[in-house]
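Dear Dr. H.,

I hope your travels went smoothly. While you were away I took the liberty of generating a structure for the chain from your last submission, since the lab meeting agenda had it listed for discussion. I wanted you to have the full record in hand beforehand rather than looking at slides cold. The sequence, exactly as received, is reproduced here:
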Amino acid sequence: MGESDSTDEILEFAIAREMEANELYMELAVRLENPAMRELSLEFAKEELEHKAKLELEVFKRGKVLHPVEKTAGFKTADYMVDFAVKPDMNYKDLLIMAIEKEKKSLRLYIDLAAIIDDKNSRETLISIAEEEARHKVLFEIEYDEARLREK
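The corresponding predicted structure, in token form, is as follows:
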């Protein structure tokens, strides 16, 4: 596999993950009981689409056309997966834990992808998205801590 193919595959894999993240946040927004967190989840859903657009732009800058990507795309996807199924019996803290785990895995994914991608501009885009995923994780962790304090 050449450098160009590898970069394209990495970007397409990341795009597929952003779509999954958007779907998760849309589903969480329906389930979250705290109105501020519901709004934050909707904001994150929108940001995931913005991440997708940034990644698609990198693909287009490379003169490529997007192709449907299989979720496996040559990467160990299990290393970056979280059970995204929102179950009816999940409580608020369970939802927050799931979101924290999702963001932790996304952060790890973008750091790992940035480390192996050859294209400098694409690497910078991946690092930028990793920073945003870290911010998401911290915000969910803060809400989780506050939810625990409210229970006491």
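Two observations you may find useful: The two ends are 56 Å apart (CA to CA). The first helix runs from residue 3 to 31.

With kind regards,
E. W.
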